[in-house]
Amino acid sequence: MADIETPRLQLRQFILDDFDNLFRLYSDAEVMKYLSLRTREQTQASLHKHIQHWQQHNFGMWAVIHKDSSKLIGRCGLGFLENTPEVELGYVFDKSYWNMGLGTEASQATLQYGFKELKLERIVAIAKPDNIASVRVIQKIGMKYQKNAHYYGHDVVYYAISRSEWQPDDSLI
Ligand SMILES: CC(C)(COP(=O)(O)OP(=O)(O)OC[C@H]1O[C@@H](n2cnc3c(N)ncnc32)[C@H](O)[C@@H]1OP(=O)(O)O)[C@@H](O)C(=O)NCCC(=O)NCCS
Q1: Closest ligand 1 atom number to CA of residue 105
Q2: Is 172 domain-assigned?
Q3: pTM higher than 0.90, yes or no?
């Protein structure tokens, strides 16, 4: 089970003690505007799923730690797109850390892990079209628009990148 580092972030496995930090994210209406707010019980279930997913599939969501402050500031990683075998990039960051390039940094590292370590052929990402920051991250990491689609009960834009299209980012350590 891999922990990885980027210049500003540590991406590590979730532990049960992360509950309070995860709940702070998942119960913040601004952070979850394009997702679904989660109760304490739902967050506890999500935390267990994040941990179990790694054990079952050798990939999953990392807890994102800001190296300078040692704070848990988000989660980012890979999962299965709803009802498909496709592997999907996902991320949620604390709003105090938005627009500093951290979402892009963590996402690039996630693609690198997916293509170099897991040898995946393709990674996809979806976002509601009005989630401009998310769509922008998806575009910045080189994913290409494929179609409009419907997942998790919402109309979304669906992007993808294949291993052959992916360009490693030399700034990642
Ligand atoms: C999506 C998210 C992870 C992005 O993280 P981030 O660290 O802010 O991302 P970055 O700083 O790497 O990039 C954000 C980009 O969006 C742009 N952006 C953000 N809000 C914008 C707006 N209202 N209008 C135009 N551009 C905007 C930023 O300028 C930046 O692009 P740039 O580098 O070209 O200037 C973060 O906004 C988040 O956690 N959102 C809530 C959870 C969420 O919606 N997750 C995705 C579900 S699909």
Answers
A1: 12
A2: no
A3: yes
